[in-house]
Amino acid sequence: MHRLVLSVQLQEKQRGGLRGRVAQKRPAPAANQTRLPKLPQLPAAHILFLVFSGNFIGIVCARTLHYQFYSWYYHTIPLLLWCTRLPTTVRLSLWLCIEVIFNIFPSTPETSLALLGCHLLILLALAFAPAERGSDRTH
């Protein structure tokens, strides 16, 4: 058995291993075949914006928000706020307001309404944000 394994390993090494086999089986492109254009690479900030905003839309549309939800979406709020055109004082106020509301226990209809209002304001600000919202903007 040991000899068989060594024999197979030696044959693979002589053929160039797995890379050699893959390279041998890959057909060469035809002369008249057009190559697909390379797609532009999305910036990491844009990908983060897409994921965070999709998650945030889910939060806004949730029927109830438990305190556990805040632990997995609170870190997305700063990026989302800074992708809007809101003044910095409004951004910081919304962030602080959401933090304070989630620290009130038990929740009341007033705190739930205030949280919904903050979320809707952020969502509207994101909807009317400039197109480059996921780019390298830092201000």
Automatic annotation (TrEMBL):
<comment type="pathway">
    <text>Protein modification; protein glycosylation.</text>
</comment>
<dbReference type="GO" id="GO:0052925">
    <property type="term" value="F:dol-P-Man:Man(5)GlcNAc(2)-PP-Dol alpha-1,3-mannosyltransferase activity"/>
</dbReference>
<dbReference type="InterPro" id="IPR007873">
    <property type="entry name" value="Glycosyltransferase_ALG3"/>
</dbReference>
<dbReference type="Pfam" id="PF05208">
    <property type="entry name" value="ALG3"/>
</dbReference>
<keyword id="KW-0472">Membrane</keyword>
<feature type="transmembrane region" description="Helical">
    <location>
        <begin position="44"/>
        <end position="65"/>
    </location>
</feature>
<keyword id="KW-0808">Transferase</keyword>
<keyword id="KW-1133">Transmembrane helix</keyword>
<feature type="transmembrane region" description="Helical">
    <location>
        <begin position="111"/>
        <end position="129"/>
    </location>
</feature>
<keyword id="KW-0328">Glycosyltransferase</keyword>
<protein>
    <recommendedName>
        <fullName>dolichyl-P-Man:Man5GlcNAc2-PP-dolichol alpha-1,3-mannosyltransferase</fullName>
        <ecNumber>2.4.1.258</ecNumber>
    </recommendedName>
</protein>
<keyword id="KW-0812">Transmembrane</keyword>
<dbReference type="GO" id="GO:0005789">
    <property type="term" value="C:endoplasmic reticulum membrane"/>
</dbReference>
<keyword id="KW-0256">Endoplasmic reticulum</keyword>
